[in-house]
Amino acid sequence: MESVCGQEEMCLLRKPNNHLDAIFLQIIGWVPEVYDNIDELPADMPEDLKEYIRIRTHNNGGKTPKFVWMSCRGKNPADEKYIGEIVYKPWQGFPAYYFPYMNTPGYLPPIVVVRFVAPTFNVVIQVECKVYAKNIKHKRQEGLGLLIYQKL
């Protein structure tokens, strides 16, 4: 089993199966500032994630669920071409009630399983996963708010 962590302890846990990756967050002491309504969603958030949040909000009686949202895609246009459909389980993000993480012994961080339905085989694909909350800044050069890794 392979483990890779980004700058802010957004981590990838990968088993040999090339279709599934497990991603978890464990930023010590961090408390997410969640989006309280869909009008607060950032302009640079992917449209498919915004639509997912709209549906979850509608199904939750009009209240936006308190989540740190996540979206994975190809890092570059060439990667997008080969990555295929992505499915997230159990949700496309992490429930806010898991935070703050305090490095407590025995604590299990929240995990999102990312399933790549039909990626192109024998091609190196760079995957970029970003998490979204009001107090998360994305800086690719510094690895903030995101995790970049490769699949083959």
UniProtKB/TrEMBL annotation:
One of its GO terms (molecular function) is ATPase activator activity. InterPro entries: Na/K_ATPase_sub_beta, Na/K_ATPase_sub_beta_sf. GO terms for cellular component: sodium:potassium-exchanging ATPase complex. Its main location: membrane. GO terms for biological process: intracellular potassium ion homeostasis; intracellular sodium ion homeostasis; potassium ion import across plasma membrane; sodium ion export across plasma membrane. Keywords: Membrane, Signal-anchor, Transmembrane, Transmembrane helix. It comes from the Eukaryota. It is a single-pass type II membrane protein. It is found in: Membrane. Belongs to the X(+)/potassium ATPases subunit beta family. This is Sodium/potassium-transporting ATPase subunit beta-2. It comes from Meganyctiphanes norvegica (Northern krill). The lineage of its organism: Eukaryota, Metazoa, Ecdysozoa, Arthropoda, Crustacea.
